[in-house]
Amino acid sequence: MANTFFRNNAPQILPNGQPVPAPVELTFSDVLKRSAEIQTMDIRGNSASGVLTDGTPYTATITYDPELLSQISQNGAQVSIDASKTWVDYLGTWVPILMGLFFIWWIFRGFKGGAGGLSRALTQQNPTKITTGKTKTTFQDVAGIDSEKQELMEIVDFLKNKEKFQAVGARVPRGILLSGEPGTGKTLLARAIAGEANVPFFAASGSDFSGIIVGLGVAKIKEIFDMAKKNAPCILFIDEIDAIGQRRSTHSYNDQDREQTLNQLLIEMDGFSNDTGIIVIGATNRSDMLDPALLRPGRFDRQVYIELPDLAGRREILDLYAKKVKVSPDVNLQDLARGTTGFSGADLENLLNEAALLAVRNGRTEIAPADVEEARDKILMGPRKIRKMRPEDIKLTAYHEAGHAFVSVMYADVTDPIHKATIIPRGRALGMVQHLPIDDKVSMTISEVRANLAVALAGRCAEEIFFGPDKITTGAESDIAMATRLARYSITTAGLSPKIGLAAINQVNNFGNRTALENASEKTAELVDAEVRAWLDDAHANAAKILAKNKDTVRKLAEELLARETLTGEEIKEIVHGKATTSARKTTKTTRKNAKNK
Length: 598
Description:
Helix 4 (117-125) crosses helix 8, helix 5 (146-160) crosses helix 6 and helix 17 (477-492) packs across helix 18 (522-549). The termini are far apart. 48% of the residues lie in helices and 11% in strands. Strand 8 (234-239), helix 9 (256-269) and strand 9 (278-284) form a beta-alpha-beta unit. It has 21 helices and 13 strands. With 598 residues, the protein is α/β, with parallel strands linked by helices. 32% of the residues are buried. The longest helix has 28 residues, at 522-549.
């Protein structure tokens, strides 16, 4: 039996008894061709619908054409046009108008309170991030910059004993500019001044005074200075002041808002009232970018450059931060200070924090010397790399580092003492030899320069001597670059070459960078290149001569590196000077004990 399917709705029937055909969709060209077949047409916009003469309903998209409508009407069709508007049409017309009226009302509302009404409205919509209140930081929390603290003690004394200065007629600086390398403690020093003087401290960043709305920076400058005047005497600290205090230019047509903000800052710092009780402290890493009007006396009267800490300063900083973490008595902070030349206060704090994290990772309750060594190597060279190396690459790296270490010991009376040698990969380096300076050096003698050049090229010399000229690798890339920079600096800037003389060929430009042979003729440039090459060749020859005469000792040093991966400075000296190392002594004792047992 066949299956029968039924529909829910019965089909529509025409008066003649035939079912109504399915509706069709006509294009505009179909309407033109079948205009005689159209019986009715209802038009609304570009849409049309109706019935054909055979009873078929249709829909079409047409273009308003009076001639077409006239032709359809002449054929006897009933045409009706609906020109009424829906709520969507009214919405598209009135919404833009209402939005424009609302914006105009919002703008004029700012002028109700006078000329500053708009500024107040802008600042309310974009409040400045201001840190307020009294700080608990004092000069005891700042270490390693004693001379800079002494410069700022007068500010603290003025805030505490204002009458003493007024009796003499002295005017205390209204503004202090702190400049220096990142992480040297500029913000910490500003907070310490406020903490020592026990006065309110207002802090903001230079980027807080910039915005997309013209006039916003001016309004915010007025806002923060009005707040400071109500709480005078106080300290107003603006960090990264170069964001708004950059040098103005006659061609900066597209940066007028920043210049207006700078102008308002200049007015506030040197207004008609000379005794506001507000001391402005600015901090920047690029004081060379600031506008001269901002640096003149009466605004930033005193400029304090905070340098990177020296050896004694680094030790003070380490002692300060070591009180906040648990450090083992075995950790030698003096050696750590010697091995962190060029570190800022923030770098030293980060070093101890990394050591504390390593101690926790290793299951210790206090920082051990191994944690400090690992943390310093991680910061200087990068994290330890776990990579698969070919045995021949590991062996070549060991001999390379052994060459550096041996020549360093040979020049121990001239160069910095060797600290350790390792073949553990870190960052891009496959190994390294570290030196710890006894103290901070401000200059180098020509003998020190030539010794350092020989040490730098000793790694490549070891590759040539022990593996042959055809087996040298690209591992000496950084050594060669460092040696070239040192030689060129000594010859062209320090005047250490008799052939070039005392002429300073490389001059420092406005951005602190050196351009190659700026004040040299072509003949002088060729002479400089030849002299640099001669210095490097001499250093290479000296290192090769030292290593060739002591091949057995260098080989023993390399084999110890292969066996233990890392050697301390004392262990390296024991091997070089012919003394038995700790591992060798242990091996000898074990051999003798086994022989007795047999």
